[in-house]
Amino acid sequence: MGKRVALVLAGCGVFDGSEIHEVSAALVHLSRGGAEVKIFAPNIEQRDVVNHLKGSPTEEKRNVLVESARLARGNIQDLSELKASEFDAVIFPGGFGVAKNLCSWAVDGKNCTVNEHVNSTLQAFHSAKKPIGLCCISPVLAAKVFPGCEVTIGQDKNVDGRFPDAETASAIAELGCKHICKNVNESHVDKANKIVTTCAFMCKAPLHEIFDGIGTMVQEVLKLA
What we know:
Helix content is 34%, strand content 16%. It is an alpha/beta fold.
């Protein structure tokens, strides 16, 4: 029987929701790994709505659960309904919506608050010693909720211009966590906390390398499960 994995989304679109390619990559690798996946998102209003053609905010109001349903092909549940006891693992793809909708990192950095249902989900899986997978900016959720954990968002320096958000590693360290430098096609496993992270689009890299890195994260999560 395949592992049961919950996938938590933050909307639809890199600038105000979940990063679509990361979600797709995670789903492909989970499918290949024989996992049974259910998708969740919080039923809340987005912090903002971005015109992805222009890269600028609009006056629209959108709902995170409704927008996430686009990626889930309609098969999605309110995050408040997620029960850790029914799953073997949970995975959070990235995208700026994580830093806007699942927490307030986009505005408050290391002083951010985490959505109550996101926080309770993370705590429930951690308490049950079930693995948590996070990619791109999502590792900041673990850094905020689990002081002392180990995560990666890629590199802590902007190597060759490929890691423009490398300063996030310093903020993670300031939260009392350890940042582990990894390449885009790698992931890091915090064995003590069963947290698996990979940098994905935190690195400017070809899409296939990001896809492969997410694959290593998914594989490690399934191993731990």
